[in-house]
Amino acid sequence: MIVLGLTGSIGMGKSTTARMFRDAGVPVHDSDETVHRLYAGKAAGLIEKRFPGVVHDGVVDREKLAKAVLGQPDALKDLERIVHPLVRADADAFLERHRQEGARLALLDIPLLFETGGEDRVDRIVVVTAPAEVQRKRVLARAGMTEEKFEAILSRQVPDAEKRRRADYIIDTGQGMDAARRRVAEIVDELTGGKPREAVG
């Protein structure tokens, strides 16, 4: 089974692209969705212990947690030490399940793939990109997003140009969703030998 890693900076269209791979029949492990699940489960108690007051009714309040770590590099590292191993364990279980089921291709959607040294976990890397002005417009249109938050997030991410340089495949969502969907189909066909969708797993 080929393990494909999908990544991209904030606002590049990675989540939309992940859905396109899922629509093409590829099993997708979504790190963000896994974090949401962990924040209401295994991770909640551990996070409350380190950041008292951020958990309400057994669920992490993401806004309170964001305030606790924003601009605090050491606090952010502590959070990552709690969350990243749990997400990785969930992803490993996902891959093993699909490997047992005979999937030819599976995708790990990892927002911080390069930042967390995730290259060793995948066979190929897809980077989702878009022009900087498109990225900025998309991100600043999000509820609660500010220039300060945007710049803080960007400062923790490997620059887009470096990600593209290290990619095996690039999908430019700035060219429109139809073009991105065609590129996804090309990648899936190349990696599965053009087998029918149902054979992908």
UniProtKB/TrEMBL annotation:
UniProt keyword annotations, A-Z: ATP-binding, Coenzyme A biosynthesis, Cytoplasm, Kinase, Nucleotide-binding, Transferase
EC number: 2.7.1.24
Residues the entry annotates as binding ATP: 11-16
PROSITE patterns: DPCK
Intracellular or extracellular location(s): Cytoplasm
InterPro entries attached to this UniProt entry: Depp_CoAkinase, P-loop_NTPase
Any GO molecular function: dephospho-CoA kinase activity
Family per record: Belongs to the CoaE family.
Entry-linked NCBIfam families: dephospho-CoA kinase
Protein name as catalogued: Dephospho-CoA kinase
Organism: Neoaquamicrobium sediminum
Recorded name of the encoding gene: coaE
